[in-house]
Amino acid sequence: MILIENAAVATVDPHGREHTTGYVLVGDDGRIAAVGAGRPTAVPAGTRRVDGSGCLVTPGLVNTHHHLYQWATRGLALDETLFGWLTTLYPIWGRLDAEIVGAAAGAGLGWLALSGCTTSMDHHYVFPRDGGDVLAAEIEAARSIGVRFHPTRGSMDLSRKDGGLPPDHVVEDTDEALAATEAAIDRWHDPSPDSMLRIAVAPCSPFSVTTRLMEEAATLARRKGVRLHTHLAETDDEEEFCRKQFGCTPVEYAERVGWLGDDVWLAHGVHLDDSAIAKLGATGTGVAHCPSSNARLGAGSARVRELIDHGVPVGLGVDGAASQEVSHLGAELRQALYTARSRGGPKAMDAREALRLGTIGGARCLGRADDLGSLEVGKLADLVMWRLDGLGHDGIDDKVAALVFGPPARVDLALVGGRPVVERGELVNADADTLTERARRAHRRLMDAG
Ligand SMILES: [Zn+2]
């Protein structure tokens, strides 16, 4: 067992319980055995004790939108809109292979863990014909870091010749994409409550996927009991594409193809009118809010206050590292707060609500709220101990405010199912220099092949 003591604790439970000085006791089953103020009444012999003085313990952060492969193409198309950025990068991504994706995923997930993330999804939708098993490569990378992983089997089947945005050579045949998606679920998906690996179905976006693939992907996911994810309402260009191609808004299109429901979470949701927000709320459709990526691409800012007020499950996402080079989930707490306030004033979001988005909100998007997202007895021991007594944070007495308003905090300890993945700001299961070197080689080989 592990006992974290003498720490500030923000449980993010339904009552918002916090302890100025408290403890979390983690059982050998990888779940939380006790959490509270002061000291625990009984600590079994042999328990590892961790002194949390100067630290805040929160639930581990949940990343609800990412493209790990993009670590290999950071720093490109720096001043483009989404469509300009995509058309620059598609030809490069067409040369991806399993080694490049594995290297990028290792670097991306290692960096995420160091930023306080204990569960991440990944949206992978580029499957070059001779690229090898790229999904297996990123799953192996997640195992090597130790984070909980929800990769999605993405797809694109609408290329330029059919009116889509991607070039012909990066899309798949519709039936092949569906068959490969079903095979990925059969091979990898673990529905158990302790699951470290779940698959979701994720056609890429309205402008890169046919209507038939959207509809049949939804049918497949529901037949298999897995979740659905896609990009929606990210930019004005997409809105214009949907109006021209389908005669409706992106959310009306999603409704038409069976893509609203509590088993669906959508990336971005930036350009939503009142009726779209009401539809998402009424159907329980989630949104992965990616404020830094939206700002980097100049896509706009999501109406996150209104989404929350309509009961929409909202989580945070760093999005791919090529559209948001920081890729730091801890930093996204502040970006979400600032984005809400830049739209709606200083009352639009507080530090605790930002933390809820990054934890329980993300767990709801991924369908894991029963087991993740808050520090409650019986839930999985996925937690982060943030160091807040250094130069950057000391003197901010409200520790949740220090975490969200202050600079990104060092992760002193991150547990996934009670197992350490970060200790004293270092990865436990992998070496950051090795990850960097492998990713550097992958990036160079990808760029030089063009
Ligand atoms: Zn994305």
UniProtKB/TrEMBL annotation:
Q: What is its EC number?
A: 3.5.4.32
The alphabetized UniProt keywords are:
Hydrolase
One MF term in the entry's GO annotations: 8-oxoguanine deaminase activity
Q: Which domain of life is it from?
A: Bacteria
| Any Pfam family matching the protein | Amidohydro_1
The protein's matches in Gene3D superfamilies, at most eight in alphabetical order, are given as: Metal-dependent hydrolases, Urease, subunit C, domain 1
- Every copy of the Amidohydrolase-related domain together lies at 56-420
- Know the name of this protein? 8-oxoguanine deaminase
